[in-house]
């Protein structure tokens, strides 16, 4: 690479990095709600096991049937700490930040990075319903 081309390459790397940061910042400042954004993710990935009578609900007591049931948490306590994703076991589990032997959802493809980020931002922004 020539010396003249190097500043252009550096500029392209910086621009790409700023664009990625901008996407995260846009998500952080947009209104992420349970009903419109988070519940569809849960229905797609989690509700199969976390409804009354199913394995996830029986094992943990955690139901994903409504905003109220999610906010109630499991038999072990709340799974959402509004304002702190890193203190929320729901986020920790779906983001793969728990014990490496535990992955949610069990036996299925993990949530996409965008879906995990949506849940993170929802929790960080106070875990609002609508």
Uncertain segments of ≥5 residues (pLDDT<50)?
A: 8-13, 15-20
Share of residues in strands? under 5%
Which whole number gives the mean pLDDT? Answer: 84
Which percent bin holds the helix content? 40-55%
- Based on Cα principal axes, name the global outline: globular
Could you say which structural class the secondary elements and strand pairing correspond to? mainly alpha
Total number of domains: 2
| Total helical elements | 6
What is the number of E strands? 0
Protein model, in words:
There is one protein chain. The N and C termini lie far apart (52 Å). Helices cover 52% and strands 0% of the residues. It is mostly helical and 130 residues long. Mean pLDDT is 84; it is low at 8-13 and 15-20. It folds into two domains: 1-30; 31-124, no CATH class. 22% of the residues are buried.
């Amino acid at each position: 690479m020539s010396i003249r081309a190097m500043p252009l390459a550096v500029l392209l790397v910086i621009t790409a990095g700023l664009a990625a940061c901008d996407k995260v910042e846009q998500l952080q400042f947009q209104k992420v709600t349970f009903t419109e954004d988070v519940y569809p993710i849960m229905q797609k990935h989690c509700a199969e096991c976390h409804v009354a009578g199913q394995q996830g609900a029986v094992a943990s007591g955690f139901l994903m049937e409504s905003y109220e049931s999610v906010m109630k948490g499991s038999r072990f306590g709340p799974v959402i700490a509004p304002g702190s994703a890193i203190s929320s076991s729901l986020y920790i589990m779906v983001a793969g930040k728990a014990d490496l032997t535990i992955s949610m959802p069990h036996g299925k493809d993990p949530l996409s990075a965008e879906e995990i980020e949506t849940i993170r931002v929802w929790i960080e922004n106070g875990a609002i319903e609508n």
